[in-house]
Amino acid sequence: MSHWEEFYATHLPPTDFEDNRILLKEFCERHKKAGERIVLITSGGTTVPLEHNTVRFVDNFSAGTRGAASAEYFLEHGYVVIFMHRLKSLEPFTRHFSGQKFMDMLELHDQGPNTSITVKPDSVDVLAPVLASYKHAQEGGRVLYVTFTTVSDYFWLLRAACECLAIFETKALLFLAAAVSDFYVPSNEMPTHKIQSGAGAPTIQLQLVPKLLAPLVNLWVPHAFVVSFKLETDESILIVKARDSLNKYKHKLVIGNMLQTRRQKVVFVTKDTSFEVSLTREQMLNGMEIEDSIVTNVITNHTEFLKTHQY
Amino acid sequence: MSHWEEFYATHLPPTDFEDNRILLKEFCERHKKAGERIVLITSGGTTVPLEHNTVRFVDNFSAGTRGAASAEYFLEHGYVVIFMHRLKSLEPFTRHFSGQKFMDMLELHDQGPNTSITVKPDSVDVLAPVLASYKHAQEGGRVLYVTFTTVSDYFWLLRAACECLAIFETKALLFLAAAVSDFYVPSNEMPTHKIQSGAGAPTIQLQLVPKLLAPLVNLWVPHAFVVSFKLETDESILIVKARDSLNKYKHKLVIGNMLQTRRQKVVFVTKDTSFEVSLTREQMLNGMEIEDSIVTNVITNHTEFLKTHQY
After folding, report:
1. Which residues form the DNA/pantothenate metabolism flavoprotein C-terminal domain (chains A, B) (predicted)?
2. Which residues on chain A are in Cβ contact (under 8 Å) with B259?
3. N or C: which end of chain A has fewer CB within 10 A?
């Protein structure tokens, strides 16, 4: 048994797995019939529980900005979107407004049984376009939200999504922006209860999480256009690691980014080329987001690919 | 140097520390003049970074429901509130509505330059009372929000808050509901860059985080009414551990709760007594929250204490 098969064999699916599988299947079949292009976006970090009754876990840094912003741009370009994200990470549209920002935009007109609530006129300008895009996506059933928390939830959902996406063949784009844990604590080495501090400081022995790109590219969605991300904090190894990944898994594109500069620039690495996508100082001051450029460039690549790989 | 002094000596304050200190000082001085009772609520989990350029960290489970709900009930009972919470954990009032729930409540009336947005009539009933309480707290300046992420941010903020709270003497209540990490990775043993998976699976050697209750009770707010929480997953040790904590730190009250049943019952442990506070099945079905009972009971205890410890 390969490493990834063993992982599935030793980790149970999440409790809402069957419900999500039905949603994914229905969503894919409906849009396949309509002839749409589809993108699966994974977003946010995954956790690795340290105890069965989980109080503590190891987490990966990711607010989910890249995935949530990219979802909006893919929708704008006519793709339908499966937004597979970490519970509580940022979501498209709502990401622009925190809970307090929402409350502060509202005006209460207290008139007993005729009480009404309106958005303050000066907030309408900001909220209206976002709300219109949100409603368009919701009402057209153009986006499906599914959530994970642990790395094992992510494994189960990703495979299920791929199984449904396979019918799109080359028209499926996978935009794997989630920050997946590299390490985990095997189920049989995990304590049942909260680790007690009285027993002194513990040592946590981690194991490597299997890489899913291999079965994903070779078995699950062999015709799809697959894009993965590489995040590093040390610039000197970024392109080398991106190229290594591409050579190993044979997918289409790796987008490399540095933790410190990820909002200004990324590097697109394909089998034969590498080029930087970045925002100018002026674009940043105008509030442009790098995800706008990333998505435009990815779609150009996908369109090129479709021309040469259409059945 | 004691363990906690050493921790401050080896961890820098967060970048927004001075700003928060000024806010805390202004808030406390203003309300002290007005003769208010004040509660400091800490809420949400803390993180322990595993790398200086943080990609990975160990986290403690806590959505922040208990702290956020309790803040609402303390405000309702006339306390002013410092809500010191983990960034992105739940906040009072906004906790009732996720981002999508907010969007779904809104109706867009697209009329060009006269576009308006209103809350749908059937959502007004739910939103209006929450919005009214939120506005009352905001407009009266009755709640101050300050945030932390890492355990060391929490350390710095908590001490600063206590230094400002001390002027309230017995009228200050500390409601320490945050789930603070017990373990951390010392700064000098932390790698600078993201741990590389190519080097094999790492072992993480953790150290014990010093307990702040000792200096807090003895030095920082010696006259205040201090309530701490104890969360366990193993019921058999809960009361014993709560009592141990009380004997060790000499504060007023420990509220013990089990991870699995924390929404239905808790146990109040004082120097001489212990009693359960719980919701009946009917109360739960009616949507009552256990924080309502917890806060009422804590305030009764605080009021009793004030009678015998007034200067």
Report:
1. 164-274
2. 53, 55, 194
3. C
